């Protein structure tokens, strides 16, 4: 393959379109969440991921698992957790079975904010996808996103 290979060019164009779609969606959701709830997309994502934890085997996520779920480095995730903890939206505690482990839970205030922000997030996502669907280069990607059925 060379830099002018048509397949490589198509692949690069597809990647650029996917990146553009992601950027537009994230920016649209970011503006909506910031304006109505003083939350960033990353903060919302973190609250959402942590709110899905449960008691029992494998129910609580380690920081690396949380970082992977919100697509951040562990250090960036720790800073994000600290910011939300300072706002009273998260709390950390020691793992009862392994004193080296630290878990993070969403507080009642965090759950309330997440519940208030979820409709805003969902509406902003819908708006961003509808807008992107009007773009010929993004419409096929929007169709793929809408057809994906990932179990929660």
Spatial order of the strands forming the largest sheet: 1-2
SSE string:
HHHHEEHH
Main sheet specs = 2 strands, antiparallel
Structural class given helices, strands, pairing? mainly alpha
Helix content: 55-70%
Count of separate DSSP helical elements: 6
Shape: globular
Low-confidence stretches: none
Look at the structure and give the mean pLDDT.
90
Beta strand %:
5-15%
The count of β-strands is 2
Rg over alpha carbons: 19 Å
Euclidean distance between termini CA atoms: 39 Å
Overview of the structural elements:
There is one protein chain. With 152 residues, this protein is mostly helical. A two-stranded antiparallel ribbon has the order 1-2. The model has no long low-confidence stretch (mean pLDDT 90).
Topology:
Blueprint: H1 6-37, H2 41-51, H3 63-70, H4 74-86, E1 90-94, E2 102-106, H5 108-133, H6 139-147
Antiparallel strand pairs: 1-2
Concise overview:
The chain contains six helices and two strands; from the N terminus they run ααααββαα. It has 152 residues and is mainly alpha-helical.
From the structure above, extract its key features.
152 residues; mainly alpha; two-stranded antiparallel ribbon; 7% strand; globular
């Amino acid at each position: 393959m060379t830099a002018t290979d048509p397949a490589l060019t198509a692949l690069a164009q597809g990647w650029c379109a996917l990146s553009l779609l992601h950027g537009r969606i994230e920016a649209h959701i970011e503006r909506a969440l910031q304006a109505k709830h003083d939350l960033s997309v990353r903060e919302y994502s973190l609250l959402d991921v942590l709110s899905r934890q449960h008691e029992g085997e494998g129910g609580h996520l380690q920081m690396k698992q949380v970082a992977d779920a919100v697509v951040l480095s562990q250090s960036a995730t720790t800073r994000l957790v600290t910011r939300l903890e300072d706002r009273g939206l998260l709390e950390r505690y020691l793992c009862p079975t392994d004193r080296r482990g630290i878990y993070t839970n969403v507080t009642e205030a965090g759950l309330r904010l997440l519940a208030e922000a979820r409709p805003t997030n969902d509406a902003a996502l819908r708006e961003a996808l509808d807008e992107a669907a009007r773009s010929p280069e993004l419409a096929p990607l929007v169709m793929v996103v809408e057809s994906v059925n990932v179990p929660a």
